[in-house]
Amino acid sequence: MQKQEYKKIVDNNTPKENYLKNAIITFIAGGILGALSELLLRGYMLWLDLPRKESGVLVILTLIIIASILTGFGIFDVLVTKLKSALIIPITGFAHSMTSAALEYKHEGLVLGIGANIFKLAGTVILYGVVSVYFFGLIRLLVMGG
Amino acid sequence: MTYKYDNVYIKDTYTICGMYEKDGPLGKYFDRKYDNDLYYKQKSWEKAEIKLLKDNLKFLLKKVNLTEDDINLVISGDLENQLAASDYALREYNIPFLGIFNACATSAEGLIIGSTFIDSKKVDNCIVATVSHNMSAEKQFRNPTEYGTPKPKTATFTATGAASALLTSEKSDIKIESSTIGRVIDMGISDVNHMGAVMAPAAADTIYRHLNSLGRDPSYYDLILTGDLGIYGKNILLEYLKKQYKLDISKNYNDCGVMLYDLDKQPVLAGGSGPVCSALVNFGYILKQMKNKNLKRVLIVPTGAIFSPTMTFQKETIPAIAHAVSLEVVS
């Protein structure tokens, strides 16, 4: 049997992933997370008398801390199975990837374990984040003059 | 590569399962349940896996009332790099050791090697063992264990536990009657989350060649048991066998990955996997059914996706293997 023909048998017996449902869950849950973050941002502005920009940094830090603690207690990955990518796409996903890697490799020591592996998943985001920021910055400079 | 054996018997088996396997429909058939957590008072997942195998061998020897000096050979394998779980567990034992790797088909490879040693009268007995641990396998093959990503429905769940069988030349209730060594089959599937599709052609090839070379009909066996294709792989195998080999085994066919867990209630997606999945079902449940004479002839066909994550990243498709071992009740 040709590989193409076998692939047909596989496709016939493979359940379809419900992408639409997953997308809707992600949209709603992610939207709620965004709205709560905005509320927190307003809260920080009000309570600490901060400008919007600084308050935003505090919100990001808060989300990172919460995501890391939830990861440590083994709750975050359970939430991901329910809320799909809503928690993975925002900064919470980034924090989660680093905390989970640090937890996983702590037995191999501080240097060769945690140090060498903490960016195992997040490294990609950082590398291509920096590269794309460079190019977008360049485009902005050329098109808008800075 | 199909061989018949004259004097190879399974004297006894020992199985240790983890918490998820205990909650599955076969939970009550396992000798020991480690169900508090997945660490077993060890510091890491890998060390927990080593403990599983170490304890399993200890309790097997106790069960059959033998000491390590009485055992001629241990054949064992697991999913860790360099077979760490088997190597480090066997440090504690003064028994000659062969380490083997065939991913989830490891137990069958062990049974075939052990049977050949005994049949050729090189040894009188040997232990065939295997172990896997859900968390150390996740760490080895996928992402950090605490890292959560949405998984497709076809993904499988690595079983936690250890299983071993004592093979002897001395007559007992269950005989290893024959075996067929599988070939490496790759039908071009590269999806690591669809192992059933990867392994089904290997299982089909081995089942066909086994039946063909011995001139047997599928109905010769009370049960043909692949392991572990999962719920979708099971259907793929049935359809592929019909189309490619004109063979219908649906009447007496099942899969270990589907039997080990309650697929509706447990978070295992398409079913169980890992070397110990089929070993737990075969050594724990099937052999007990055979001892009670509920089953008389069983063909076990453990299947393994023998893939390396490095090769998958280098865009290679996934090779698979399946070995068949025929077990018979001696009347």
Mean pLDDT of chain B: 95
Written as H for each helix and E for each strand, in order along the chain, the element string of chain B is: EEHEHEHEHEHEEEHEHEHEHEHEE
* Individual helix count of chain B: 10
Tell me what portion of residues of chain B adopts beta-strand conformation.
Answer: 15-25%
H/E topology pattern of chain A: HHHHHHH
Kindly describe this structure:
The complex is a heterodimer of chains A (146) and B (331). Chain A has helices spanning 3-12, 19-47, 52-72, 76-83, 91-104, 110-117, 122-144. In chain A, 77% of the residues lie in helices and 0% in strands. The mean pLDDT of chain A is 93. Chain A has 146 residues and is mainly α. In chain A, helix 2 (19-47) crosses helix 3 and helix 5 packs antiparallel against helix 6. Chain A has a domain at 3-104. The longest helix of chain A is centred in the first third of the chain and has 29 residues, at 19-47. Chain B has 331 residues and is α/β, with parallel strands linked by helices. Chain B has 2 domains: 2-168, Peroxisomal Thiolase, Chain A, domain 1; 174-329, 3-Layer(aba) Sandwich (Peroxisomal Thiolase, Chain A, domain 1). Chain B has helices at 19-22, 45-64, 84-89, 106-119, 134-141, 195-214, 230-245, 256-259, 275-291, 309-313, and strands at residues 2-4, 9-17, 32-33, 74-77, 97-99, 125-132, 157-158, 161-168, 174-180, 223-227, 253-255, 272-273, 297-305, 320-322, 324-329. In chain B, strand 4 (74-77), helix 3 and strand 5 (97-99) form a beta-alpha-beta unit. The radius of gyration of chain B is 18 Å and the shape is globular. The model of chain B has no long low-confidence stretch (mean pLDDT 95). At the A-B interface, helix 1, helix 4 and helix 5 of A face helix 7 of B.
